[in-house]
Fold these 2 entries.
Entry 1:
Amino acid sequence: MSKARLITLEGSEGAGKTTALKTICKILDSWDVDYICTREPGGEPTAEKIRDILLFSEHLHAKTELLLMFASRNEHIQNVIKPALAQGTWVISDRYVDASYAYQGGGRELGFDIVKWMDLFIVGEVQADFTVLMDIEPEIGLQRIKSRGQADRIEQESIEFFHRITQAYRNKAQLESNRYAVIDASRSIKQVKVAIKLAFADKKDVLL
Ligand code: T5A
């Protein structure tokens, strides 16, 4: 049996991660692997409670936000990700630690060093094997989610905040190009699906 893998999906708001997740599930079905789908912040009961605080508090200091992201991540890793991987089940997570580099390190301008420190402390060896970055200009992504109704606390941030996030993701993907597949998420849903399928076909030998 091949090693269970942790696959993560990243991108700015409205990039189409949830839509991409469905394509990834179909690919893994065709590879005949067992997997679970989960998300951050959240993915298990305590982490979901922290998600509510993160997304719907009126105000949070940037450092509190960082600490809560990693607190929820720790519950998620200890209670969901590690046990699944240990029993040979692949994990697909809609966002993971790279989101903290992009949003808290880049968007909130806390810098990458403190995120790296938390990454070593909380995530340790439970690193993603493959990360799909849904790359999109923030204006397009935000336009897509506009019709969804009331924006959460983070979605209400300035366009400059989202530009810093996009740039931070692109920098990380460039630095760790072996782990990343960068998908042009501004294209049609059909074209995005094809690009994701190609990216997985390229990685199949490494992952399986
Ligand atoms: N966060 C998270 C941090 O700050 N730090 C962290 O460490 C972590 C883990 C999570 C928030 O928390 C932050 C980031 C986020 O702000 P969330 O609700 O999970 O909040 O938000 P998102 O993950 O951003 O989810 P979204 O639903 O906003 O975006 P998706 O999932 O990328 O987009 P999706 O698939 O729902 O698509 C949005 C719309 O666009 C359409 C879809 O049909 C949908 O209507 N669409 C397309 N339209 C045209 N062309 C395409 N190619 C399309 N693809 C999708």
Note: The mean pLDDT is 96.
Entry 2:
Amino acid sequence: MEYKDRRELPIGVFDSGVGGLTVVREIMRQIPNEKIVYFGDTARVPYGSKSKDTVTRYSRQIVRFLQTQQVKAIVVACNTASAYALDELEKEIDIPIIGVVKPGAKVATEATRNGRIGVIGTAGTVGSGIYTTYIQQIRPEVEVIGKACPLFVPLVEEGLWQDPVTDEIAMRYLSELIDIGIDTLILGCTHYPLIRSTVGKIMGEHVTLVNPAYETARELKELLMEQELFNPMPPSLGTNKYRFFVSDGAQRFMQFANSIIKYGILSAKVINIEEY
Ligand code: DGL
């Protein structure tokens, strides 16, 4: 299919599963004219406990799939994949690609007053030290304290967004960061914006929470403008504006998706990602 205008092409967004929908939600809010093709790797989730090689291989396959959908840009809406694979992917494709780590790191660096930033995420993201690298590229004197919070992902997926069990676990994870006296905390995993109020309650009002999903959508908008890829017009009526693909469990995916996106996701198609 030939497009007259590249600006009308969709944005490709991917994640290890459902979490990247927090990024999709922000893109829908901030740049509502854009079409989106989303892929959630629900068959191979979680990425957070897998090796860099595996996550990079998975990410490559997904990028190849998204390119078959004629996307004009790609958003790696997964912190772990951004941490492990973005540098490689950037070298391999000729359309713009952004991850969620850099935008979050940039805003946190601007927000901190006492120079102490906390980062919570998967074991992979925190272990990679990627947030520290980006933050210290901008302000080398800033101290970055990482804390892996692996139980948050299943708690969010079980819908326990506001629940005493989540409060208890969050308290255990976060007390160390409170003791250190951070004043800024990056929600460095796709799922964490959904438990923002729990985290905020525990950290207290004086700690600024940074949501990379929000910052990524902002950065995507700027990038599209700069590269003259920003779609100025809403897609014509009847266009399939938002399309969702998964590698397994379409029904469960849709249930979760509809609990966080108020758009009404009617279908998700299962594809065999190993073919790409
Ligand atoms: N999407 C992942 C991330 O943001 C969390 C879930 C997983 O471990 O795959 O790091």
Note: The first strand starts at residue 11 and ends at 15.
